[in-house]
Amino acid sequence: MTTPVPASEKSRSNLPVNQQRLWDDLMALAEITEPDRKWTRRAFSPRFLEGRDWLVSHMQDAGLEVRLDTAGNLIGRRKGSRPGAGAIVLGSHTDTVPDGGRFDGPAGVLAGLEVARALMEAGVTLEHDLEVIDCLAEEVSPYGLSCVGSRGISGTLDEVMLARENSEGEKLVDGIRRMGGHPDRLAEAKRSDIAAYLELHIEQGTVLESSKLDIGVVTAISGITRFEIIVEGRPDHAGTTLMTNRLDALVAASELVLAIRADAVERAKGPGHFAATVGEFDIEPNAANVVPSRARLLIDTRAELRPDMEAFAVRLAELVEETAGRHGVTIAPPRRVSDNPPTPSTEALMKQLEGACDLLGAGHRRMASGAGHDMAWFARVAPAAMIFIPCLGGRSHCAEEWTEPHEVAMGAAVLLETVKRIDAALP
């Protein structure tokens, strides 16, 4: 981890972007929400399409050529002076979680739009094309799948995913078609012409806020691995079975939960981001007068460094064996339900972002992302990196999600300067 660079005296003043216009856009898009749920604009909903209509109009006003790709991503392009040089892409998403926030996703898209405006107003023509992309359904969609659009751009949206259904029985393939995509020509969405991908996002944590820094340069999207553990005990009468004669699955499982947390706390002290959460917990027969006979745990584990994940998996298997032995229950070895490796940012792009921060006087540090983002899928087909801006109290995925106007503007300014640096540096 690099040493944090504090903000200079010239930061937050004379930025090369229009702070008020960017903020007004954020507030205007946020108002396109379900009337009884602030701030809710879920992918595939009428409100989402209304938000996209608003965005199309503003993209066109910024001089961008607007199109939908076959995966349902909304793309605004500003042509460069050198055909075939590839595109510098600024992306994120405008969909929200239910009762979500005004900044998670939209801040990145609208910061990209402000970069395009600033270039137009300054009369700057890049050699590369500049694209602003609103990716379809970054949040978990009604079909149970996240990052739908960026998966399409990376060529990883497969037939099994397309066959997933929402609660009304509609398949994802039909939902994409309803959003204006052409899933029968999905291969056309995969990109090979992206010279660099950059994404701005609120941090969703308190590192930047507590250290009074403007920008987090993201080193990696942490890998996410989920483990399932089944504890088998024995059902008995809760009133007549002696305490010393019980095979209580819940007691054993509860001990495991505490041991998992203790292990994760120690690993989080290391150089890379690490977190483990028992997010699902079920017991059977779940009756007040019966000793629990079965417990199921689902563990969500996040690691910036792959060796940390593998070390945790080894220790988890040991904890399972030790706990089973102490309580006389049966616990199968942990099962990996899903396993996604970390996605590192491109070092050259991180250095360009840091150079832009220094130029603007923005305080910055390197840090990992514990959450998933579209950047992880773009990184499969192009050099990619992202930046964080502070958010109040680390709150996100809630109506109270907040960041300040100058914080979004500083992030947009860093993107603008980085785009110009990349445009000059790339062959």
Draw up the topology in text.
Elements: H1 19-30, H2 46-61, E1 65-68, E2 74-78, E3 87-92, H3 106-122, E4 129-134, H4 148-154, H5 159-162, H6 172-178, E5 194-202, H7 207-211, E6 215-221, E7 223-232, H8 249-267, E8 274-284, E9 294-303, H9 306-327, E10 330-331, E11 335-340, E12 343-344, H10 347-360, E13 364-369, H11 375-378, E14 384-389, H12 405-425
Parallel strand pairs: 3-4, 3-5, 5-14, 6-13
Antiparallel strand pairs: 1-2, 2-4, 6-12, 6-14, 7-9, 7-10, 7-11, 8-9
Helix pairs in contact: 1-3, 1-12, 3-12, 8-9, 10-12
Kindly list the characteristics that best describe this protein:
alpha/beta, nine-stranded mixed sheet, 12 helices, 35% helix, globular
Number of strands: 14
Radius of gyration from CA coordinates: 24 Å
Strand content: 15-25%
- N-to-C CA distance: 29 Å
**Which class of secondary structure composition applies to the elements?**
alpha/beta
Sketch the topology as an H/E string, one letter per element: HHEEEHEHHHEHEEHEEHEEEHEHEH
Question: What would the average pLDDT be, to the nearest integer?
Answer: 96
Large-scale geometry:
globular
Number of helices: 12
